[in-house]
Amino acid sequence: MRSQPTARTRSWKARISSWFEPVLVGVTVSALAIGGVLWAFGVRDIADGFWIAATAAAFLPALYWMIATLVKGRAGVDLIAVLSLAGTVMVGEYLAGALIAVMLAGGRALDAAAERRASRDLRALLEHAPRSARRRIGDEVMVIPLDQVTVGDVLVVAAGEVVPVDGRILNTVAVLDESVLTGEPLQVERGPGDPVRSGVVNAGDAFEMRAGATAADSTYAGIVRLAQQANAENAPVVRLADRYAAWFLPLALLVAGGAYVWSGSAVRAVAVLVVATPCPLLLAAPVAIVSGLSRASRLGVVVRGGGALESLGHATTLVMDKTGTLTAGRPKVVDVIAAPGREAPEMMRLAASVDQVSPHVLAEAIVTEALARGLALSAPAEVAEQAGRGVSGVVDGHRVEVGKLPDGSTGADWARAVVNRASLDSAAIAWVVVDDELAAAVLLRDPLRRNAPRTIRRLRQAGLTRLVMLTGDRPEPAREVATVLGLDEVYAGQSPADKVEAVRRERESAVTVMVGDGVNDAPALAAASVGVAMGARGSTASSEAADIVLTTDRLDRLADAMDTARWSRRIAVQSAVVGMGLSLVAMVVAAIGRLPPAAGALLQEGIDVAVILNALRALRGNPALRTDLPPDTEALLHRFADEHETLRDTLTLLRTAADRLADRSEDAVALSAVEDAYRFLTGELRPHEQAEETELYPALAVPLGSVEATATMSRTHAEIERLTTRIETHLRLARIAGRIGPDQTDDLLACLYGLYTLLQLHFRQEEENYFTLAEDEREYASAAGQSGAPRPPRR
Fold it and tell me: Which of 210-214, 351-355, 626-630 has the lowest mean pLDDT?
């Protein structure tokens, strides 16, 4: 592959092109128009002189373009332009020469304008790059060059400024515009402790952040490096256009020569050359490819070049890492289980308070979850951390320890149940000990991305026939993810070398795409036909090794990029083939003497402009694949998605009631817990389900194509209502007796546990099948959303 042109070279060429092509158009059009006016007034000799001047003005650049093309080793279709310009002067068809000159200049200018338009999103990344940062030391805030920012610096981001480096937000809620990176127009909120990426814009009040990386190692710098390399010069489809030209050039010369031999008329031969002038025509292929790159960029996909886009369109095998690609990539709190007599929120608050000073990844997850729940954390004292064991300290007068149990003992029944559940769910446990008494357990796991199942379906629809997962994780969680998503193959416990070998094996049989986000994925990304990095949170190493970077944290954008790749190639080939087909027809008409040079020049001008405009259709994407939602429907999806998040706060009431009922230690406690669960079912859940039936599902019939698309969800609503009514019947009997009878226990347990499981599945199905239709980056489906753990409503 040829070395990429330097930024300085590209800038110099762009500056020359920005004024030369418009000037050439102005000169040729002016000369053509003045000559036409003079010819109309009978001053024909001077008119011919202006037309000759227009021809000469275009001849020299055409000669340069021809030589430049031949030097690059391509078929020199510009040779036809040079021959036709010279031929019109030689046979005295000065008007035709001027028309060809205008066509050539106009086509070049149109093509350059199209490419500039198609590339504006990529250039916007470069123009958007921050240059400085505000660093706060004590009470003093100083503006410093970006390269002086170091990890750990406290930075102030003023309203409207670009976040300079990657880091985490301190002590406030920031409102951010991430559209430059993600393509999403909606603003997002990030709270204390949340990560923030360089390149996003502060759309709210000023906030402070702690730098987590230098400018060179931040997200935006890696994306800019890729954007600087994005071009379509080496795309296979462009070489395909060159192959078209390889046979089109001799064919055009053969037809022109045959017309001259058969008729003895040099005018006919020149007319053939005039209509065969395909210089702007064959530039339609690069326009389509660059347009595809631009569209991909707007979708949150930065492509290194046209070659990668072309290869992506041919891919049939996808190899994926698990962590950070199919899963969230960081631990999340699944549930907080308190010992009998303890309150889960208070145990969570104590654990998070002492974990504030720990750098451990699980401690960070616990603190983040506590802040998200709105818990007021206290400053810990006498903090001590033991590697591999956990952290301890004094919080509000209580001695709190979070981590592993000192002796590994879990003698209590509730603790053994926690261990069993963690084993089944592949979750980690952070035990909470308060005043030397085992008080609670916090379950954490790396959850499956909420939209992962729908994404996998989209990838298969985009043309991928084999989906493989590579992961260094244990086989059990890997197989669980593969089973849920319906993957074709899964390899667990893979080292970086194992991943490279697996990718090479897949590449031997098909064009293979590899998706990853970590440093350990970088070698495999480089080994694949097309490497794709999850750049939103991925490592710099993976982004540098990849051909494509997903700037938004959504794998489904890869399916959109594949659709864009196929559509761009289709448009490029269509533009080249149709345009040359029309030129061939015109050549035949010119060869038999029915198309004079001047008329042929006008006809060819129209053909060239039409196919270049057609190539710009790649900017819009395939209209058959667009499923735009009506604004009202999208608003409904967001509304019910938010309601789901709120309902999860109390969804665990069902499981708690079942657990209390199964314990049977206190009948009054069990009855109260079941009453709480019933109030949730009738007071909160039932109105939500009824509103979905009457408002959301009818609105989804149009974008989903049929009312049958929501029929299974309606059937689930009926089952939820049936079980709720059954619980109501049991409660009516229990209120009369003052307790839940032994003969009711088994059926009531089945109803409660069944409803808990059914609702979790039902929520996930709606989120995966419906809520993902609304492309919203708000993280209303977090790890707790995946697992059913309680979450607070957004404030």
Answer: 626-630
What is the spatial distance between Cα 325 and Cα 557, in angstroms, rounded to a whole number? 12
Three-state SS for 399? strand
- CA 433 to chain CA centroid, Å, is 42
Q: Between 6 and 394, whose confidence is greater?
A: 394
Tokens 């406690």 correspond to 669
Cβ atoms of 475 and 320 closer than 8 Å? no
Cβ(533)–Cβ(546) below 8 Å: yes
Q: What region does 434 belong to: left with phi over 0, alpha with psi -120 to 50, or beta? A: beta
Q: Rounded CA gap, 352 and 450, in Å?
A: 26
The pLDDT score that the predictor gives to residue 4 is: 40
Q: Known catalytic residue: 642?
A: no
Q: Which two tokens stand for residue 442?
A: 């916090």
Q: Give the strand pairing for 398-403 and 428-434.
A: antiparallel
Q: Provide the pLDDT for residue 156.
A: 94
- Catalytic residue selected from 78, 166, 321, 563: 321
* DSSP conformation letters of 676-720: HHHHHIIIIIHHHHHHIIIIIHHHHHHHHSSGGGGHHHHHHHHHH
Is 50 exceeded by the pLDDT of residue 9? no
| 373 closest CA partner among 718, 80, 793, 712 | 793
For residue 498, give both structure tokens.
């194992």
Query: How far, rounded to the nearest angstrom, does the alpha carbon of residue 378 sit from its chain's CA centroid?
Result: 39
Tokens linked to 607: 């053909």
**How many C-beta atoms surround the C-beta of residue 34 within 10 A?**
17
Structure tokens at 402: 């979070």
Q: What burial class does residue 235 get, using C-beta atoms within 10 Å of its C-beta: 0-12 exposed, 13-18 middle, 19+ buried?
A: buried
Q: Please give the mean pLDDT across all residues of the chain.
A: 78
- Rounded CA gap, 66 and 84, in Å? 13
Q: How many residues does the chain have?
A: 795
Q: How far apart are CA 727 and CA 748, in angstroms?
A: 7
Confidence class for position 284, pLDDT limits 50, 70, 90: low
Please state, in angstroms and rounded to a whole number, the distance separating the CA atoms of residues 42 and 453: 75
Q: At what angle do helices 597-615 and 94-118 cross, to 10 degrees?
A: 0
Average pLDDT of span 75-102: 74
pLDDT at 2: 36
Strands 437-445 and 332-338: antiparallel
Where are any strands of DSSP class E within 389-507? 390-395, 398-403, 428-434, 437-445, 466-470, 489-491
List the structure tokens of 242.
Answer: 């060159």
Question: Per the confidence metrics, is the pTM higher than 0.85?
Answer: no
Tokens for 90, please give them: 């030689």
